[in-house]
Amino acid sequence: MVDMKKRVWISLVMAVLIAFSFTWSGRDQTPERDDLIRLHVIANSDSPEDQALKLRIRDQLLLTFGSAFQEAHSMSQAREVIRDNLDKMESIAQAEIQRSGCDYPVRAQLGMFPFPTKAYGDVVYPAGSYEALRVVIGKGTGANWWCVMFPPLCFVDVSGGVAKRPAEEAGKPEEEAKDTTLDSKAQQESAADSKVQQESGKTAGEPDLSGREQESATKVVYTFKAVEWWKSVRIWAAHLFS
Questions:
Q1: Which residues contact 31 (CB under 8 A, 6 or more apart)?
Q2: Is residue 164 classed as helix, strand or coil in its secondary structure?
Q3: What's the pTM value of the predicted model, to 2 decimals?
Q4: 89 by DSSP, 3-state: which?
Q5: How many CA atoms lie within 13 A of 189 on its CB side?
Q6: Residues 13-67: pLDDT tens digits?
Q7: C-alpha to C-alpha distance for 108 and 40, rounded to whole angstroms
Q8: Residue 48: is the preceding peptide bond cis (ω within 30°)?
Q9: 13, 35, 66, 86: which could form a disulfide with 155 (CB 3.0–4.6 Å)?
Q10: Which has the closest alpha carbon to 34: 128, 123, 138, 168?
Q11: Pairing of strands 118-120, 123-125
């Protein structure tokens, strides 16, 4: 009778742990859309020159505003930083455009925009509308660079002036296809990024974010944590009966 009660109790504990592992895994990998602000820098075109210009503008923006976003502790504070500096962001981008010998207009705006499903390391962002700071260069018909600006998963190494990210954060900011509202070119993205890397002499292994990792699969796998819990509970249960 005592052994039967032990078995029932252990079974209930295992069921609760497995259910918890499913729930926790889902929370880890599918963040709430209302809890983040993306940064998108959209190139004038997919030419190597325009793609390289996009990355230089990105570096200047993150170099200038990275610390302000790291100090923001809420969405409202992050929005305030963006809204108070939209004109300055445009001026910084315009200055870089002029240094490059180009004559493109540039516009910065904060709003809600549609995005496809994307994987940021092992975190999956489902397709849908997200709040984003969008910086559009010229016609805005080229592939864009994106990262999560709040919480500040992208930032800048001020000493080097190059966009980097903390080693402890999961995943890497990556190039993604131009947003669907700007006539998406998903198939051309990889080729455009490769050209930029060749022009700049950088490879995917270097810290500059022009290096792009192969996009990880977006399918969320819940079973791994459940299996880990199951194994640990079985070992624990075996000790009880030994």
A1: 123, 125
A2: strand
A3: 0.56
A4: helix
A5: 22
A6: 566 555 544 444 444 444 456 788 999 999 999 999 999 999 999 999 989 988 8
A7: 10
A8: no
A9: 66
A10: 128
A11: antiparallel
